[in-house]
Automatic annotation (TrEMBL):
It is found in: Mitochondrion inner membrane. It comes from Podospora pseudoanserina. Belongs to the complex I NDUFB3 subunit family. The lineage of its organism: Eukaryota, Fungi, Dikarya, Ascomycota, Pezizomycotina. Its main location: mitochondrion. This is NADH-ubiquinone oxidoreductase B12 subunit.
Length: 96
């Protein structure tokens, strides 16, 4: 009996995948290459993504004084509008 006939008879057991004479299955290959079973560097690299090196903490301190500067500038603008006397210019006889 030819190997192709044997593989064709086993088609319902293999599912919808077309049988291959070599026995190579692309679905099984892709399923096994998604994530390695054991990563020897996983423990050494874990510190990069936890604690003060997490993504949130890395970007939180990019502009450390920005919040204080915004509050100070807003307070100055409010003070200027409410309390400082506006200097009105009269362009008449008394010029400078």
């Amino acid at each position: 009996m030819y190997p192709t006939r044997i593989l064709r008879s086993a088609l319902p057991q293999l599912g919808d995948e077309k049988p291959n004479i070599t026995g190579f299955s692309m679905k099984k290959f892709l399923a096994n290459t998604k994530k390695p079973r054991y990563d020897p560097w996983e423990r050494s690299e874990a510190w990069r993504y936890t604690g003060r090196f997490s993504r949130f903490n890395r970007y939180r301190n990019t502009l450390p004084g920005f919040g204080t500067a915004v509050v100070a500038f807003t307070a100055y603008c409010v003070y200027e509008q409410l309390f400082l006397k506006k200097d009105e210019h009269h362009h008449g006889e008394e010029h400078h």
